[in-house]
Amino acid sequence: MPAVRRPVGATGPQAVTISFAGFNRAWAAWIGDRLERRGLAVVYQRWDPPDDVPLADCLRDLLLAPGPVLVVLSEWYFQLGPRGHEEWNSALRDVVAAEPERFAGVTVTTAALPGATTVFAAADLTTVGEQEAERRVLTRLGLSAEPLGDQGDLRRGPRYPADSPDIWGGVPRRNTRFTGREPLLNAAYHALQEAGRGAGVVTLHGMSGVGKTQLAAEYVYRFGAEYDVVWWVSADKRVTCRQKLAELAPALGLSTGVEYGERLRAARDALRRGEPYSRWLLVLDGADEPEQIWDLVPTGPGHVLITARNPEWGEHNSTLLEVPVYDRVESVAFVRRRAPRLTYEEAGQLAEALEDLPLLLDQTAGWLNDSDMSVDEYIALLEDGIDQDVVKISADFPLAFQTGWSILLNKLRETVPESVDLLRLCTFFAPGAIPVRLVRDLPPEDLPEKLRGLVDDPVRWARAINKLRQYAVVRAAGVGEREVHDAVSGEGASGAPGDALYMHRMVHQIVHQDMPEQDHKEFIEVVRKALVRAEPGRPTDTRLWPRYAEITPHLKAADVLQSTDPAMHTLVLNCLRYMYLSGEYGAGINLGRRALEAWRDLLGATHPRIWDVSYHYANLMRAVGDYAGTEAIERAAVEHLREEKGPQDLEHLRAAGGLAADLRGLGRYEEALEISGWILASFRELLGEQDSRTLNAQNNLAISLRLLGRYEESLDLHRRTLEARRQLLRPRHAWTLYSEINYATDLRLLGRYSEAESLQSQSARVHRMVLGRENPQTLRAEHNLALCLYRSGERAKASALFTQVLESCERVLGENDPLTMMFAAGQSCFAREHGDIDRAMDISDRVVEGYLRMLGENHPYVAGTRSNHALILRNVGERDQALELTENALTDMTRAVGETHPWTLGCAINASALRNITGDAEGAAALTGTTITGATEVLGRTHPLTLSARIAHAADLRGLRDAQRAEKFEQEALDDLAETLGAQHVHTVAARSRIRPYWDFEPPLT
């Protein structure tokens, strides 16, 4: 027999929580008022579950409140977030069905709801009057439904939501796809409620198409139950506003004459006095000219809600609330309601392309929903402009975006024509933050006549900026009031009025298309000259990077690649250099590719600028691991320049240096060393020892030596390079700091851990201050510091730093960047020994696959990371598979870099361990024996890798039951470990405990 459901409030609840969607606030307010009149405490909880929290958990959270939970059920309650009916049904069965005495419901819709909502046993309020609705609510909660009689609360409460206010005029229909805006609606409500008598005026202001009218309409429907009069006035013109206000007089039942001037006075006087109604709401929609109609705004006990592009309503005793574009979550939800066929990912793509502007999202999503075109194709189509043929006009946004802006631009031409000139000029900067002060920095002779007077005259300039701001065409920073949008700041910003503007991408597009040819020719040259003048000329100076960050986004909009001006070429080349040094690899590669293509067409395939741009382009491609691609570019440049200018030419030497870097990336270290050697010799001969280019070549030779395992020679060269750079450049120059990383790395590879940590710790702090925390070079410094800490035994500090650096690099450069894979390899090794073996396995899989994809089967990095992976397999018990993998890694590494390279010797230590634990004690002992010989020859008897081989060999001898020799080898190795690293160093302690050593491959950047 089924259980009998008891009324939720059978024991008489003292508190009720009402959970509701914002769309149904009026129902929640009315129900709450009915309950409070009967002495209950009511808690209002607007339902808006986070997307990343399971639905069942959100429902359980409702139970944290005391007493019953009354849910106002409508389709809106179930549309918040990316949840389908299946997930809802599951959560309702799990949570609500398990607590039938805590949950109750009322239904305020006839739309289809998830089937499991039957667990609420909801009272239906959709087709009944106020008294019956109240009775059903009370009965569902187990409360007495007897009338209160004379003892009841006689105060006026919210109107029953199914009833309209006594007077209701001109209000547009409710937008059933209205989305989000909860903070704005609440802010407007509280601003009006808390205002004193006569001061209840709020202005919703923002750019055209941002949804101000829709927001005002939603406010009316959501809070209209609290008013007796709701009157909507179209206020774009004074005459229309007067007429609509006058029409309120007969609606209020006022006795007046037939002249609308008399009716207007009577209506305003009635509103002021609050007779016959004191609870009134007047909406002035589209009131963009406050100077024209501010005197028509009534005072009194009611409220006025204004929508306008113009924020100057703040000067007329109005509270300003700026209406921004949607946030991304709101955009996606809105697009999904407008175009249900789109996925959440596709909705996000569209929102990003349109920068979350509601009007455009409505009209484009509406068109897409009726089309089978993909979102990618549609976005590509929009690159050429918003055409009337690819939008769908809805009743909610009845004016096409392009039409609305054309009307606005015509109005600007009639009032302040120079503002249109300024607006057109801005379209030769990129949309978004526009540093127009760069134009004001130009000398007058570089400006066309129509701009000269505007730029030279601060009054005219401010007037043009103000007019654009009033119409919300742009957002302005610093025109006599607070900054209203994030704008470019930092070094070089002068702070004068109109220094920085912000223009939406689609506004930028429409203005740019609507431009006379002569203006196009003149204005593009102005912006090009402004960018050239603003370029600092020193891309290696980190103090100037904020200025480069300001100008590089605008190169494409100014079409600088189509200029034959040498100054423009220098601008592009210096920006490419900045992008490489600052880690803006993706944008730099895009600019470099376009520059190569454009300049080949414009200047010819062998023009000197082609080799300049090829050099910078190759640096950027090399930074993301495309070594094969850069080798082809650099080899072509080397061959051409050697033939044309000779082997001692500086440009040829620069290109040859790039080729050597490519060879290092490809694992061809001997070839790279040979080229690096003669490049350094040539630079020394041509420029001397102390030229920065000579020092760069010396640095590169040292890196080639390190990659060949010649650590002492590398250390010596890096030390000399560091000392020279400290003198020639400055201690905080990026190249000096880079030398500190290199020198500390060599110290660490030689086992001088304390020295390495001391230098790298100080250098990492300076890197963070000078280059910023997320610069790739800073991340390299911190990763090397993590390795130093790890080798020194400070594992807790190392662990936090390994994790932090990897997360930062993945966020900044992506998972497949060479730097990210280098950091991931280190994180995997650390996690294997001191953390989560499953995480180590997952990361190691990705690292091996990434290097295989980037570098190919025969590269030493693939062999090295496979050796690391074998150690993980060993730890999880896959010994046979681990042995096979480590033996193959040893063979591959030997073939790639030779038998006595430290990497090969390290692979041998790992292979010997697998041989030992799989029963091949003789093979293990033979391998560790030859490893000791090679390591002693290459690195020395007391190098940590040699000591690891000696400890391992002692273990192998024990496996062969040669206890005497094992004891001798072990004791000698332990003595050397204690003397070299210290008796309490983790490696010494582990060896003393007879924990077999292993070797981690650390893939370096080249």
Task: Please describe the topology of this protein.
Elements lengths: L14 E6 L4 H12 L4 E6 L8 H8 L6 E5 L11 H12 L6 E5 L15 E2 L5 H11 L26 E3 L12 H13 L6 E5 L6 H12 L5 E6 L3 H9 L1 H4 L8 H14 L6 E6 L4 H4 L9 E6 L10 E4 L5 H11 L5 H10 L4 H12 L5 H8 L18 H15 L1 H10 L5 E3 L2 H4 L8 H8 L1 H13 L4 E3 L22 E4 L1 H9 L3 H18 L10 H7 L14 H17 L2 H19 L4 H16 L3 H19 L4 H16 L3 H19 L4 H16 L3 H18 L5 H16 L3 H18 L5 H17 L2 H19 L4 H17 L2 H19 L4 H16 L3 H19 L4 H16 L3 H18 L5 H16 L3 H18 L5 H7 L14
Parallel strand pairs: 1-2, 1-3, 3-4, 4-5, 6-8, 7-10, 7-11, 8-9, 9-10
Antiparallel strand pairs: 12-14, 13-14
Helix pairs in contact: 2-3, 5-6, 7-9, 11-12, 11-13, 15-16, 16-19, 16-21, 18-19, 23-24, 23-25, 24-25, 25-26, 25-27, 26-27, 27-28, 27-29, 28-29, 29-30, 30-31, 31-32, 31-33, 32-33, 33-34, 34-35, 35-36, 36-37, 37-38, 37-39, 38-39, 39-40, 39-41, 40-41, 41-42
Q: Considering DSSP H and I runs of 4 or more, what fraction of the residues is helical? A: 55-70%
Cα shape: flat
Structural class: alpha/beta
Task: Kindly report how far apart the N and C termini lie.
Answer: 77 Å
Strand order of the largest sheet: 6-8-9-10-7-11
* Total of DSSP H or I helical runs spanning 4+ residues: 43
How many beta-strand runs? 14
Radius of gyration: 37 Å
Residue fraction in strands: 5-15%
**Main beta sheet, described?**
6 strands, parallel
Which key features would you list for this structure?
disordered N terminus, alpha/beta, six-stranded parallel sheet, 1006 residues, flat, five-stranded parallel sheet
